[in-house]
Specification:
- It is globular and about 50 Å long.
- The protein starts with 16 loop residues before the first helix and ends in a 14-residue tail after the last strand.
- The protein is about 20% helix and about 35% strand.
- It has one domain: Roll (Pnp Oxidase, Chain A), CATH 2.30.110.10.
- It is built from 4 helices and 7 strands; from the N terminus they run αββββαββααβ.
- It is α+β, with helices and mostly antiparallel strands and about 160 residues long.
- β1 and β2 form a beta hairpin.
- Strands 2-1-5-6-7-4-3 form a 7-stranded antiparallel β-sheet.
Length: about 160
Amino acid sequence: MSSESQLPAALQMPLSRNVQLLLEARIPARLAWNDAGGSPRIAPLWFHWTGTSLELSTFAGSRKLDELRDGDLVAVSIDTEDFPYRSLRIRGRVTIEAVDGLTSSYREAARRYLGDGPGQDWCDRLADADQALLTVHPTEASASDMWSAGYLTERASNR
């Protein structure tokens, strides 16, 4: 498991305001991998940041589980859709763990994305579903925030 000192600089404490906003947002993470034939795949998934790894859950029987292998290199993007854009890009190895029922990370993400009551209701509806926990152990990470880029700086004469 990654320790704080092994994390890429963009994910080390204290987190930048940009990274903190993205990790707390209700934006799905986009997980990217290559299938067995080498074709790129991407899927939006709810996520939970543990402080050292990114946890995503997928349902048993999903295509991802047929294509991903423990230790595969994956990429993740968490980014906004509204201008000016913010993004966090992470690369790392994935570990896969089959779970009976819903993962605790999925339940926590459901509360964050939907709210306490609706998140619990959603999870109750899925009580019989099994999942797999996909844990991304970051080896590289970078963040961008268009507001901090020089080309968006407001000119004094335009204020």
